[in-house]
């Protein structure tokens, strides 16, 4: 029987040991993401039989990750089914790789339906290309950055003890000025959770300041593979529309230049965001699937 518990900072090292077994560098499977989003996704974890089990939930369903670890996978899946039955919940498996869908299909056959989750596909980029913005493909991005550099007298700083509170204040101001959608209200909770635990989570981030005021920021963390970084959060003031291009380039150039790739997460099915992410020409788009009975 699985004993699910809250995700706590104290679990970080233990969870990270299991996350080394992840098949694909999905943004969902970093400790910072699991901890930060736990405030809105009701994230719970359990350890048993050399597996890490991750469960998210809403009023109707439990959403499980594929069991992470090394052991008898059929037994691990049966533990998930047992947990859902005990709690009288429907089951969905989320954030699956193609290979994991095949395993589930072999176990359950026609009892389970596999679906592509396009809105959750991750965009993975070359850090070198984002920092240099060379060539015709990046011509407009380079122009945006050069325009920003020419027009504004700015300061680029990595997030530290001296500016973390300025960063938190900027984030809350950004949400106050944005449309109050349910998705953004959740995201604000998540981002505040991350920033309030920034140093405990070992996050890496940076800000751009103009007139000593934060106008853009981004933050993320190293993934389980040494050459991949994951950018979880990025916000810029609407008063400086080219600041998104600037923070992306500067962060790639100065803060994560020791990584080969950066996972800049999904587009959540938002047309404008999808267009923006594609415009940076990802090296890889990581496919994700879900499965339900």
Polypeptide structure, described:
- By secondary structure, this protein is α+β, with helices and mostly antiparallel strands.
- Helix content is 39%, strand content 26%.
- It has ten helices and 15 strands.
- It has helices spanning 12-19, 31-41, 73-86, 98-108, 127-132, 139-151, 164-176, 182-196, 243-255, 271-279, and strands spanning 5-6, 44-48, 51-57, 61-64, 68-69, 90-96, 113-116, 122-126, 154-158, 204-210, 213-222, 228-236, 261-263, 284-286, 289-292.
- Strands 1, 2, 3, 4, 5, 6, 7 and 15 form an eight-stranded mixed beta sheet that branches. Strands 9-10-11-12-13-8-14 form a seven-stranded mixed beta sheet.
Key descriptive features of the protein:
293 residues, alpha+beta, seven-stranded mixed sheet, 10 helices
List the helices and strands and how they pair.
Blueprint: E1 5-6, H1 12-19, H2 31-41, E2 44-48, E3 51-57, E4 61-64, E5 68-69, H3 73-86, E6 90-96, H4 98-108, E7 113-116, E8 122-126, H5 127-132, H6 139-151, E9 154-158, H7 164-176, H8 182-196, E10 204-210, E11 213-222, E12 228-236, H9 243-255, E13 261-263, H10 271-279, E14 284-286, E15 289-292
Parallel strand pairs: 4-6, 12-13
Antiparallel strand pairs: 1-2, 2-3, 3-4, 3-5, 6-15, 7-15, 8-13, 8-14, 9-10, 10-11, 11-12
Helix pairs in contact: 2-8, 6-9, 7-8
């Amino acid at each position: 029987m699985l004993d699910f518990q809250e995700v706590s900072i104290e679990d970080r090292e233990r969870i990270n040991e299991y996350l080394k077994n992840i098949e694909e560098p999905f943004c969902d499977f970093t400790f910072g993401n699991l901890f930060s989003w736990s405030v809105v996704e009701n994230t719970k974890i359990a350890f048993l039989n050399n597996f890490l089990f991750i469960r998210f939930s809403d009023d109707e369903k439990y959403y499980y990750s594929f069991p992470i670890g090394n052991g008898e996978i059929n037994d691990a899946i049966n533990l998930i089914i047992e947990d859902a039955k005990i709690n009288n919940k429907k089951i969905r498996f989320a954030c699956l790789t193609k290979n994991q869908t095949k395993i589930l299909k072999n176990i359950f056959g026609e009892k389970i339906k596999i679906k592509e989750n396009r809105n959750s596909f991750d965009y993975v980029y070359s850090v070198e290309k984002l920092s240099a913005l060379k060539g015709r493909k990046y011509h407009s991005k380079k122009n945006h950055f050069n325009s920003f550099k020419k027009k504004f007298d700015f300061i680029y700083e990595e997030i530290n003890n001296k500016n973390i509170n300025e960063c938190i204040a900027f984030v809350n101001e950004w949400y106050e000025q944005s449309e109050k959608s349910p998705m953004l209200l959740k995201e604000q909770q998540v981002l505040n959770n991350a920033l309030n635990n920034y140093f405990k989570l070992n996050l890496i981030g940076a800000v751009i300041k103009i007139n000593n005021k934060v106008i853009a920021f981004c933050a993320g963390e190293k993934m389980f593979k040494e050459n991949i970084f994951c950018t979880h959060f990025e916000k810029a003031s609407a008063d400086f529309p080219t600041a998104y291009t600037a923070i992306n380039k500067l962060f790639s150039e100065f803060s994560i230049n020791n990584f080969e790739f950066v996972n800049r997460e999904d587009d959540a099915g938002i047309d404008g965001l999808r267009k923006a992410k594609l415009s940076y020409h990802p090296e890889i788009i990581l496919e994700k699937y879900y499965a339900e009975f």
